[in-house]
Amino acid sequence: MEQGSALPTFDFDMAMADVVAMRRSLLSWYHHHGRDLPWRHNRDPYPIWISEIMLQQTQVKTVIPYYHRWLATFPSIAALANADEQAVLKVWQGLGYYARARNIHKAAQILMEQHHGVFPQEGNAVMALPGIGRTTAGGILSAAFDLPWPILDGNVKRILARLGGLTTPLKSHTKTLWGWSELLLDQSHPRDFNQAIMDLGATICVPRSPHCPHCPWTHHCLAYIHNLQAAIPMTEKNAPLPHKNIGVAVIRNARGQVLIDRRRPEGLLGGLWEFPGGKVEPGETIADCIVREIQEELGITIQVGAPLTTINHAYSHFRVTLHVHWCDYVAGKPQPLECDEVRWVEPQTLNDYPFPKANEEIIKKILGPQ
Ligand code: SF4
C-alpha cells in the first residue's frame, strides 16, 4: 500500500469489522438521502448505459434533459443501431466529447450484430464495447444486474483518497484505490452500494468544503480525523492551457447560402459540421489566415468582409478564440480537400446540422434576432 506522508494509512485487512460497519452505515444513509435520478427508475441496461456514458464528463443536471431527449429519439438499442450517425451527433450536440456519442452508436451496432441486441452481463463482453472502461462497466453491471462490480469514478476516488488519508497525487494510487473500492463494495447489495458511494461523493464528500458532519463515515476517515479534507485529494499543479487564435469564415454566395463543411470522422469533434477556417500563423492577420485556410481546405477564393463575432471557448486541453468574419464567395468549386464533405446551405437550415457548441453562437449571429 502506498504511503502518504507520516499519516497512518487506511488498512482494510486489519479492520474487516469496520468495513462491514461502513457498508451498513453508508446503505442506511443512502436509504434516507440517496438521489432520485431518472435512470434509477428501472433496471433496463440500455438507459443505464446511456446515462453512464453521458455522466462521464458532464454534471447530472446537464445530463437529465439530454438523457430524456436521447431515449425519446432512440428508444431501444435497435433504434440506435439503425440511426444515421449525423442524427446521433445532433441529439448529442452541446454535451461535448463527441467521441462518446460515436462510440455509443458503434457499440449499439455491435450489440445487434454480436449479442442479438441484448446487453451482456459478462464484464469482458461489456468492456469490449467501444467507450466502456472498467468503471463504466462496473456502473452498468451493478445498476442493471446487481452484480458485484466495483466502480472508481472521480467522486469515488476522492472519497477513498480522503478515507485513506492519501497525501500524494492520486495518479500513483490507482491500483490501491481499485482495491479499496473492491473491498468496500457490499457483495450483497452492489447496486445500492455503488449508487450510495456516488451520491456521497456528489452531495457530501464534495471537492471543496465537504459536509463531514453529515457523513456516515467520519469515524473511519483519516482526512477527517486529521483535518486534512481540504488538502486531499492532492492535485498536480495544472499548467495553463495552450491558446490558439482561429480565423473562421462565414462564406456567402450570391443566393444568400452559406458554406459549411463536415469534419473527418476521427479526432476531436469528428463528424460534426463547422464553418471553415484554421489557426492563425505567427505574423499573419486574421484576414490573411482566413483567405489561406479557405484556399487550402476548400480550394476556393473569397473576399474577407466585416467581423461577425469573436468567441472564446475552452476544450479539455486547450482554449481557442474564434475570430469570425463574413466572407463573400469569389471563384472556384468548393472541394473537401481537408474534410469529409462541403455543402452550400440555406441559413435557416443550419440548426438541422450537428455543430460543435462553439459554433452555436455563430449560427445565432447569422440568423439574427428570431
Ligand atoms: S468524513 Fe468528510 S472527508 Fe471523510 S469521507 Fe466523509 S465527507 Fe469525505
Describe, in short, the structure shown:
This protein has 370 residues and is of the alpha+beta class.
Small molecules (ligands, ions, cofactors) in the structure? iron/sulfur cluster
- In the predicted model, the low-confidence regions spanning at least 5 consecutive residues are 1-8
Helix fraction by DSSP (H/I, runs of at least 4):
40-55%
Output the strand order for the largest sheet. 4-1-6-5
| Net shape | elongated
Major sheet size, sense and barrel closure: 4 strands, mixed
The appropriate CATH architecture of the largest domain is Orthogonal Bundle
- Order of helices and strands, N to C? HHHHHHHHHHHHEEEEHEEEH
Helix count equals 14
Could you say which structural class the secondary elements and strand pairing correspond to?
alpha+beta
Q: CATH class of the largest domain, anyone?
A: Mainly Alpha
Q: Give the oligomer, counting copies of the same chain as homo and different chains as hetero.
A: single chain
Overall pLDDT: 92
Tell me how many strands there are: 7
- State which percent range the strand residues make up: 5-15%
Distance between the termini: 61 Å
Please identify which CATH superfamily of the largest domain we are dealing with: Hypothetical protein, domain 2
